[in-house]
Structures are given as C-alpha cells and as structure tokens.
Amino acid sequence: MLDLLVNIEEFDADAALIRNALALASRQQAFLTGLQLVPEYFPPAEAAACTDDPEDRPSAAQARRQWWMQRCGHAGVAGEWEVRHRLHVDALAKRSQLADFVIGRLRAGGADGDSGYDEVIRALFAPSSPMLLLPDRWQGVLQARRVVIAWNGSGTVARAVKAALPLLQRAAAVHVLDGERRGLPGITLPPLPLRAWLQRHGVDAQWENFEGDPGAGRNLLDRAHQLDADLLVVGAWGRLRITELILGGATRWLLEHASLPLFIAH
C-alpha cells in the first residue's frame, strides 16, 4: 500500500489540493495522512494581520481531526491526521521520509520568484521524499493520465521516476523526453537502462530525443503542453542547489511558472 502525505495549509475544507489528494489516494488505494504544520512563532506582522489568536491555532488544528477522518471516510480512503509544531521546514522534510511521496501546493511565483518558495519548496533543500506539487494557477483535476518524463540520466530524475511508478503504471500514455548527453566510453559511467526498467514494470513509454536543453524549464513545459500532458516528472537541482536558487535554472523556472502538476525529487 502506498503511504502518502498531504501538506494541508489552509482551513478551506473544499480546497482543490484536498479534493485531488483524496481522489488520488482512492484510485491508488493508498493510505493518506493529512499533515498540518503549526508555527511555534509568528512574525509580528503576521500576528497583527491574523483575525484569530495565533495561540489558539494548535488546538484548532488538533480539532480538525474529525473533519479530516470524515473526508477520508466519504472518499473511501484509509487515513490519519497529524499536527506538528513547526520550528523550521525540516519538520516537513523529516516527516516525509516515511511517505512514498508528499502532495502539496505550489504557490505561483512572479518575476522575482520569491513568493513561490514556501516551506514545501524549501523542504527540497532538506532530505525529503519526492513531492507531487499542484500549482495554484492550475485548475484541473489530477488524473495523471498523460505523463511526461523529463529524462537527463541524473540520479534525481531516476529517483522521481521510481517514486512515480504507481502513477506511471496507471497512466494511459507515458512520454519520455530523452535529453541525456552521452559521455565518453571508458570514462563516463554508462547510462541508466530506463527504457528496459519501464518495460519491466509494465510501462510502455513513447520515446523522443529532446533536441533542446533538457534542463531548460520553458522548453520542457512547452513540450509537455504540446503532448497534452497532465503531469510532468522531473529531477530537481540539476546543478548545485544554491547556485540554481541564486542564478535561476530549470528547477527555479519550473517552480515559478508551472501550469501543470509536477512530480519532483532531488
């Protein structure tokens, strides 16, 4: 049984994130834990803007367990509710290590990109499970029927593909954009046998040599839309993570501009 974790940030019982997480868990017959992180400390500006008392939030979060269990019951999903006092993003990353993957929101980032880097994204810097991120700007229903894999031969994308396997096995179509650069015989390590691995696990993927830079976020997203994909599987941080965060890069661009769900691992 898959063990999934959904990071619930808001008190909206009908949020698209929650509906999609429950529907996915039902299709996959997965166990779904609803996780709410409650800050130990609220910045003065945030505390002043709150209409409720920040000190009441931990008990209010605990009280939501009945609501969550009812939602799971209505969806036919086995689940649990957890509340954790958040000292830093490592709380989410650490808890995720007992989940096959995390489902979370991807906040839209503007030209500066900073607004998109909440605790879910920053958890990618820490040891964490792969994440299925649903962008705010995306208003669809998560089906994962047409999946695109952005393959560059790296260990990060291999980890993402491995974690996404249950979704790939149920997809109607899987398309691999193969942009792996071949190395020198006897010097570079041999490439991973992704094609054979997918076939061995019952995934009949279509293959395409990706002429553009496989690390270019805009090119990947454009091609995924051309293929009518509803899920893009990628590996994060193709270069040094801190370098991508400062200078940009494919990972940062996708996190800021994604218009379809991302399945991402580092």
What is the arithmetic mean of pLDDT?
Answer: 83
Low-confidence stretches: 42-50, 110-116, 244-248
Give the terminus-to-terminus CA distance. Answer: 23 Å
Please, how many helices?
11
How large is the radius of gyration?
19 Å
CATH topology of the largest domain: Rossmann fold
Number of domains: 2
In the CATH hierarchy, what is the architecture of the largest domain at level 2? 3-Layer(aba) Sandwich
Account of the protein in words:
- The protein contains eleven helices and ten strands.
- The chain is an alpha/beta fold.
- It folds into two domains: 3-135, Rossmann fold (3-Layer(aba) Sandwich), CATH 3.40.50; 146-265, Rossmann fold (3-Layer(aba) Sandwich).
- It has a ten-stranded mixed sheet with strand order 3-2-1-4-5-10-9-6-7-8, sandwiched between helices.
- The two termini are 23 Å apart.
Secondary-structure map with pairings?
Elements: E1 3-7, H1 16-28, E2 31-39, H2 44-49, H3 57-63, H4 65-75, E3 79-86, H5 90-96, E4 101-106, H6 119-122, E5 131-135, E6 146-151, H7 155-170, E7 173-178, H8 194-200, E8 206-209, H9 217-226, E9 231-235, H10 241-247, H11 250-257, E10 262-265
Parallel strand pairs: 1-2, 1-4, 2-3, 4-5, 6-7, 6-9, 7-8, 9-10
Antiparallel strand pairs: 5-10
